[in-house]
């Protein structure tokens, strides 16, 4: 654990409360210079003042003393595994509460806060419909904002910025999203291939392959995301172009899915259905939804997203406890209940599809 700096704790709590050092000094019964010395680390408050400070800031003494604690990497990983296991077992509410408990308990462990907040967005926000998604973002956005403001690790900060951008976009706060995304510095060049070649020259072939395969996953997903976004950009302008982009990305990803890559084509069929619904093409929308259902293995709806059986990603070793389990059917049902599919909500074929899916859950 990192050594406690109680002066920083007092300073942070005082500023959050919006009071001056003099006001705090008057309440506690000490001089203003004494408070200044606490916050600068020159001296510490007498132990008899801790209950008074805790009461003033409406926190426990334990929290007051542990407010700025940091965890070791091993401790953080253990907490993440504990929380993820609950979501994997379907105990979403318990997992949600435990994540929030740890986030509150270790407010300065930014890497832990980031991991847990991402987990909350993914496990609670994506599968429970629009209202739950907004509720989850209402909890996680302040966490990511705190990370951006106070964390000194650039990688964690950039990750938090990306999460905030997604959150702001979902909440339609587009100006904030653009401001954040534009603030992320682009790398001058990608050194992955160079590093891999150096590993190979050193005889570290396994390390080289692992690095390149990790990059391959990123590139597949980036290409998938780029083409998908292009298709969506034409939703309101040209249905034909939008349809072609969506079918293009479906064909692209199928090349990898045919080799064992986790199936994500369902999203593109869903995008087609949404496109048709937006343009009042009810029959096409229903047919696209039928195709979407063909991608779902109802016998294994809670399957984990795992690369261990993909031959061209064989060097990537993901611990079992870190493999994310996603209930694709719940995600699909939540998506279909959105207003974007209002066109088919009263369609009998649509109702029967939803009924059939829910009966097999």
From TrEMBL:
Highest taxon above the source species:
Bacteria
Instruction: Give the matching CDD domains.
Output: HTH_XRE (cd00093)
Q: Per its UniProt record, what Gene3D superfamilies does this chain match?
A: lambda repressor-like DNA-binding domains, Tetratricopeptide repeat domain
Could you tell me the keywords of this UniProt record? DNA-binding
Which segments constitute the HTH cro/C1-type domain?
A: 10-64
What is one Pfam family matched by this protein?
A: HTH_3
Which residues, by range, are in coiled-coil regions?
Answer: none
| GO MF terms, alphabetically ordered | DNA binding
According to UniProt, the name of this protein is Putative DNA-binding protein
Q: Which organism is it from?
A: Clostridium cylindrosporum DSM 605
Q: What is the lineage of its organism?
A: Bacteria, Bacillati, Bacillota, Clostridia, Eubacteriales
């Amino acid at each position: 654990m990192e050594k406690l700096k109680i002066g920083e704790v007092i300073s942070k709590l005082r500023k959050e409360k919006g009071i001056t050092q003099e006001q705090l000094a008057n309440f506690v019964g000490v001089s203003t210079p004494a408070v200044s010395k606490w916050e600068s680390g020159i001296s510490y408050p007498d132990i008899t003042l801790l209950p008074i400070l805790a009461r003033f800031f409406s926190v426990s003494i334990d929290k007051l003393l542990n407010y700025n604690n940091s965890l070791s990497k091993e401790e953080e990983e253990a907490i993440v595994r504990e929380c993820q296991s609950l979501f994997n077992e379907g105990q979403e509410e318990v997992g949600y509460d435990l994540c929030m408990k740890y986030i509150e308990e270790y407010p300065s462990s930014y890497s832990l806060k980031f991991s847990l907040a991402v987990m909350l967005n993914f496990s609670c926000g994506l599968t429970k419909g629009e209202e739950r998604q907004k509720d989850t973002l209402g909890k996680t956005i302040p966490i990511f904002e705190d990370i951006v403001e106070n964390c000194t690790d650039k990688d964690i900060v950039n990750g938090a910025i990306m999460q905030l951008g997604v959150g702001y976009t979902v909440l339609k706060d587009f100006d904030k999203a653009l401001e954040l995304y534009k603030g992320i510095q682009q790398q001058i060049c990608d050194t992955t291939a160079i590093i891999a070649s150096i590993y190979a020259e050193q005889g570290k072939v396994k390390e080289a392959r692992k690095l390149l395969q990790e990059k391959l996953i990123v590139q597949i997903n980036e290409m998938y995301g780029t083409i998908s976004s292009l298709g969506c950009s034409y939703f309101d302008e040209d249905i034909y172009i939008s349809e072609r982009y969506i079918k293009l990305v479906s064909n692209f990803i199928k090349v990898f899915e045919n080799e064992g890559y986790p199936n994500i084509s369902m999203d593109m069929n869903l995008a087609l259905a949404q496109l048709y619904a937006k343009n009042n093409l009810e029959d096409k929308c229903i047919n696209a939804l039928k195709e979407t259902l063909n991608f779902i293995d109802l016998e294994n709806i809670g399957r984990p997203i795992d690369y261990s059986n993909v031959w061209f990603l064989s060097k990537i070793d993901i611990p079992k406890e870190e493999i994310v389990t996603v209930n694709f059917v719940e995600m699909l049902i939540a998506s279909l209940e959105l207003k974007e599919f209002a066109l088919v909500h009263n369609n009998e074929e649509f109702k029967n599809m939803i009924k059939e899916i829910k009966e097999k859950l």
